[in-house]
Amino acid sequence: MTLTQLEIFVLVAEHQSFTLAAKQLGITQSAVSHALKSLEKDWKVNLLIREQHRIELTHIGSQLLLHAKEMLNTAQIMQQEINASHGIQQGTLRIGSFGASASIHLLPELLKAYRLRYPNLEIFVEEGTDLEVSQWIHERRVDVGFAVLPRPNLDTYPLLQDIFIALIPKSYPAAQQSALNIQDLQRYPFIMTKAGSQTHVEQLLRQYHVQPKIQYQMSQLLTILNMVNLQEGIAIVADMSMTPELLQLHPNVVKRPLIPNTQRQIGLAVKDEKSVSPAAKAFIQLAQDMFHDQC
């Protein structure tokens, strides 16, 4: 068993494709197939079910995949520790980000400052929902990720507080109020976000027993803003996602806080702080330094 074989196994399992795994590694498809067959021969198990148009993990393959990811992550941490001991800031950092709050408000400023300090590090960013990012952290698909706290199954680092707001068409009577009572959502058409905040908006509605008339479900913030601008309904989004520049482009939209006030805490999370790579540690420390007054 070699680390290269494990890497090939992980990539084939993630992509469900020999071709895509070979392309990412820059080797031939036959080399990928040979490495997996050698691994299966050494372990005396079948890792994959190979069908004409589909590849699936066997039961034992799914179990071993988790361990393979752990071993590759440990190897990467070891290499980064070695590089750091020589004063060489090289390697990779994989970051998970969700929604406009993290991806627009937090991440660009952080990445710019991080890149100035560590110009030789290769950075990958994967974007999904809050729940997807937490799952990626657990699976070690990313080294560190943004998360809405608390996350009891992860080690977390609080960064700042955010609130949810209502985006309201100017023509609606609710737009004349200084804040929107969450119960009043039931009186208007509603646009449900399918982006990073969806789970938390749904939880908020359940908490206050509100059942709005959902007219649309949309995943892009700009699309939601455009629909509110066209007087098609009210939406609830995270305040950090709503920049003044975006609102200026949508003159028929006003934002209002909710009653009761609804806060959430955003931070960074890792699977296990004891095995965090030097690159991820540096990223977390920089984030805490930049946002320490906003917790």
Give a written overview of the molecule:
There is one protein chain. With 295 residues, this protein is α/β, with parallel strands linked by helices. It folds into three domains: 3-83, Winged helix-like DNA-binding domain superfamily/Winged helix DNA-binding domain (Arc Repressor Mutant, subunit A), CATH 1.10.10.10; 91-159 and 265-294, D-Maltodextrin-Binding Protein, domain 2, CATH 3.40.190.10; 162-264, 3-Layer(aba) Sandwich (D-Maltodextrin-Binding Protein, domain 2), CATH 3.40.190.10. It has helices spanning 3-15, 18-25, 29-43, 59-85, 99-117, 130-138, 198-207, 221-229, 244-248, 278-291, and strands spanning 48-50, 55-57, 91-98, 121-128, 144-149, 155-169, 180-181, 189-193, 213-218, 234-238, 253-259, 263-270. Strands 3, 4, 5, 6, 7, 8, 9, 10, 11 and 12 form a ten-stranded mixed beta sheet that branches. It has a two-stranded antiparallel ribbon with strand order 1-2. The longest helix has 27 residues, at 59-85. The termini are far apart.
Summed up, what is this model?
This protein has 295 residues and is of the alpha/beta class. It has helices spanning 3-15, 18-25, 29-43, 59-85, 99-117, 130-138, 198-207, 221-229, 244-248, 278-291; strands at 48-50, 55-57, 91-98, 121-128, 144-149, 155-169, 180-181, 189-193, 213-218, 234-238, 253-259, 263-270. It is elongated and about 70 Å long.
How many beta strands in the DSSP annotation? 12
Question: Alpha-carbon distance between the termini?
Answer: 46 Å
Q: Name the quaternary structure.
A: single chain
The mean pLDDT is 89
GO cellular component, one term: cytosol
Protein name: LysR family transcriptional regulator
Domain HTH lysR-type: 1-58
Keywords: DNA-binding, Transcription, Transcription regulation
